[in-house]
From TrEMBL:
Name of the protein in its database record: Flippase-like domain-containing protein
Keywords: Membrane, Transmembrane, Transmembrane helix
UniProt key word Iron-sulfur: no
Transmembrane annotation, as ranges: 12-33, 45-68, 88-105, 125-143, 149-172, 193-216, 228-246, 258-275
Record's signal peptide: none
This protein's record includes keyword Membrane: yes
Native organism taxonomy: Bacteria, Candidatus Doudnaibacteriota
Amino acid sequence: MKKFNWQKITGFLVPVIIFYFLIRAVTANFAAISEFDFNFRYFNLILSIVFIFFNSLLAALILKYFFLHSGFYLRFTDMLRVYSFSQLAKYIPGGIWLYLIRFRYLSKNVSKESFVVVSSLENAVYVLSGFFLTSFISAQIFTTAKFQVVAAIIVITILVVLLMPKLFYFFINLALRALKKDGKNDFKKIGRGPLLITLLGSSLNWLLVGIGYFFFLSSFLPVGFTRLPWFIAVFAASVTAGYVFVIAPGGLGVREGIMVLLLESVFGLEIATVIAIATRLWSAISEALIAGLISVFSKNKLEK
């Protein structure tokens, strides 16, 4: 008798349930939504995709920087193609396909141990920088002493963690020893200096994609630049929360639920729900478009 895989079942049910209630909210309030003052600006939509492209450039550069400090030199153009193409796999259930695709293309140029280390550090810095930027921006918006103390604690904790890379390598070593029969690990450790640099780079990346998110919203909603920091924080918080919930592919459903909660006070439940669903489509289509363009205009083919 086969055992139930509760992780897969939960990873399937959670997005389905969340999307069910989101779509239900849209259909139940369709009349109110249709009366909303949508004003489409195609230039802003194009500009939002441009910022997603800059986001991909910087993300590929950060990944290249990680591998460089692990002892492996990779061409930026190759890293950009691997990154942009593998991003599309994050929507496949299982959560591992993105890394399998990356390793398939990079296995001839990097060691297995270094690939695991870089992937682990990339994920850690990505999540920490998301919380870092969200806390920092929120502390500027919400000026109550209690909130600013909480935000300061989060920021300081993240900096302390990055200043103690031994914490990362302790868990990485445990994972690698479990995977290898001889129990020996052979990889170059990345110091706290490069980790702090990647934190700043990743935080800048959140700013880029957050600005893209703002221009996407402004392409069909009347939003002013005064709310730009707030929208950057909303996007970073919702995407990071979805990323941490690893059993949902690409944070599917979780990201949308958090985004609705954060935007409801500004736009109301109906419009916030439309924004959350539209943002998912915008992200997926933008990433697919960028990956396609990079593949078309790349002169050299990647070796598998």
